[in-house]
Write a structure and sequence with these properties.
With 141 residues, the protein is mostly helical. 62% of the residues lie in helices and 0% in strands. Helix 1 (3-29) packs antiparallel against helix 5 (78-98) and helix 3 runs antiparallel to helix 4 (68-74).
Length: 141
Amino acid sequence: MSDPLRRTLLRPPLTAAALALGATALVAAVDPGAPGRYPPCPLLVTTGLWCPLCGGLRAVHALTRLDVAASVGWNAIAIPLLILAVWFWVVWMRRAWRGETAPGRWRPIAPGWAVWAVCLAGLAYGVARNVPALAVLAPHP
């Protein structure tokens, strides 16, 4: 594969990695626990219910400080989702490096059933964290 083509194929995953690292650096530098620093969750504001991602910024902030227990306390699915995101990125990067993808052509990384399983797990987690008997799933330090 020619170098210009490889650079073209690598640009999207490398750009995504740079944006993700920049966002992580911002969350590490600016504590999401301080009021007014980030906008609140629209679902929480309008309904009072925790969405599956509520506490996610605080979980990432805790992870940047290597505080895994606090991260799990803020959002129990944050770490598995981050691991999944890194895995997707590695597969994307490998395909781009090998030239297995064409510019402007999308090829799924995971089978459809896996995407649906992750979505259903997120929905179930969102419901479970709002059940009073499972209050331990609600965001807390």
